């Protein structure tokens, strides 16, 4: 018969006490068990507090695994102060050349997490890990060489990437394939690139399916085959590579290589935005605005357009600005609309946004003073570049 106890019962206390005693021996596996059960996933505050105290004491007595685990604990709790504390523990582990400590300390200095960006320190940590035979250290060192630029540095980047790939690092396999397909720092060899992409995908790198899709579409290193390209794109998307998810949406929305299917496009955009893909957020907004693959909802359209804008898709200002101009899904606000059109126009990719700015200034809008001279100059500029809306608008003025 199974004996039942509550979470704070004697059975749980005894089990926790055993976990503490085992962790105090300094065993890495015992520390991992204590961390996972009572710190990372534990709900008993007292157990968690006591477990953290034991791990901290071990870290101060030179246990590198304990220091590393405390770095993980603070990194998962967010915020600059926590990041700085996490870095301190990662560097404590790195001081004893503990590979996970070296890699994490390198990443924190490289990206400026909890400290100022320091590429020199990052490189030194990556190099220590690489020279110790760690594939992630090799890949990090390759990243530093590639960023430095210049032919010799590119060659070094390729060398360290290949070393990591030969050790079975899936991401390195993919990146080495990219070097080969582009002929960057190494002689171009599309056939070899395809083989590395296949190896990387088999090792769990979903991006490589996306790269294989490109190879089959272009006939680069393989015979051109659209059907196989689509199969690899789907594999990549189902494997979790977010750009492939987005491209599946684009493909179904535009009916490119497949029968047009707005519902499936909408579903793939939804999956991509769950992984924070900015352009997918813009396209999802478009689905809601036009009622493609879902019921029309200007409110939902505005929400997703704003998400895309916040993520840096400035061109979406055209879409969101139009909603503010029309008062569709958001309160009507001409000043807000004009600001959004300006943001979109600055990308140089939205002549419609520039057209709306010209129209607003030429005609005037509530809260926006009329400026016929500025508006006309913008409209004439667009017309001279062949923009049909501007040409038609100016024709109407002359009637």
Structural features, described:
The protein is mainly α. Among the domains are: 13-132, Serine Threonine Protein Phosphatase 5, Tetratricopeptide repeat; 241-312, Tetratricopeptide repeat domain (Serine Threonine Protein Phosphatase 5, Tetratricopeptide repeat, Alpha Horseshoe). The chain has helices spanning 10-24, 28-40, 45-60, 64-75, 80-94, 99-111, 119-131, 135-148, 151-166, 170-182, 190-202, 207-218, 226-238, 242-254, 262-274, 278-290, 298-310, 317-326, 334-345, 351-363, 372-384, 388-398. The radius of gyration is 28 Å and the shape is globular. The termini are far apart. The model is unreliable at 1-9 (pLDDT under 50).
Helix count equals 22
By CATH, the superfamily of the domain at 13-132 comes out as Tetratricopeptide repeat domain
Provide the gyration radius in Å: 28 Å
Report the biggest beta sheet as strand number plus sense, adding barrel if it closes: none
| Mean pLDDT rating | 95
Distance between the termini: 94 Å
Q: What is the element string, with H for helices and E for strands?
A: HHHHHHHHHHHHHHHHHHHHHH
Q: Give the overall shape, derived from the CA principal axes.
A: globular
Q: Beta fraction of the residues?
A: under 5%
Return the structural class: mainly alpha
């Amino acid at each position: 018969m199974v004996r039942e106890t509550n979470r704070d019962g004697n059975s749980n206390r005894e089990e926790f006490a055993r976990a503490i005693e085992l962790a105090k021996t300094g065993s890495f596996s015992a520390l991992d068990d204590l961390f996972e059960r009572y710190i990372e996933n534990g709900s008993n505050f007292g157990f968690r507090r006591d477990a953290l105290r034991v791990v901290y004491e071990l870290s101060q007595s030179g246990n590198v695994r304990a220091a590393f685990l405390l770095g993980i604990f603070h990194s998962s709790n967010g915020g600059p102060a926590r990041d700085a504390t996490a870095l301190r523990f990662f560097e404590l582990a790195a001081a004893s050349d503990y590979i996970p400590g070296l890699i994490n300390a390198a990443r924190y200095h490289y990206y400026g997490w909890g400290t100022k960006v320091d590429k020199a320190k990052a490189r030194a940590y990556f190099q220590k890990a690489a020279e110790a035979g760690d594939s992630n250290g090799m890949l990090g060192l390759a990243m530093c060489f590639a960023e430095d630029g210049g032919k010799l540095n590119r060659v070094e980047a390729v060398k360290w990437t290949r070393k990591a790939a030969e050790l079975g690092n899936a991401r390195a396999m993919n990146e080495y394939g990219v070097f080969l397909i582009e002929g960057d720092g190494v002689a171009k060899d599309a056939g070899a690139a395809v083989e590395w992409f296949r190896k990387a995908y088999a090792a769990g790198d979903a991006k490589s399916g996306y790269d294989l899709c490109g190879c089959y579409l272009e006939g680069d290193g393989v015979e051109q085959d659209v059907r196989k390209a689509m199969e690899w794109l789907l594999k990549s998307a189902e494997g979790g590579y977010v750009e492939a998810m987005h491209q599946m949406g684009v493909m179904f929305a535009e009916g490119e290589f497949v029968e047009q299917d707005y519902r499936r496009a909408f579903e793939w955009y939804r999956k991509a935005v769950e992984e924070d893909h900015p352009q997918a957020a813009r396209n999802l907004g478009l689905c809601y605005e036009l009622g493609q693959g879902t019921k029309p909802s200007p409110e939902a359209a505005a929400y997703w357009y704003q998400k895309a804008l916040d993520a840096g898709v400035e061109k979406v200002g055209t879409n969101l600005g139009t909603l503010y101009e029309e008062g569709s899904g958001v309160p009507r606000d001409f000043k807000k609309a004009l600001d959004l059109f300006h943001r979109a126009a600055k990308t140089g990719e939205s002549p419609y946004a520039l057209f709306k700015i010209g129209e607003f200034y030429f005609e005037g809008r509530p809260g926006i003073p009329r400026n016929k001279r500025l508006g006309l100059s913008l409209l004439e500029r667009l017309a001279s570049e062949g923009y049909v809306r501007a040409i038609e608008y100016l024709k109407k003025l002359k009637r």
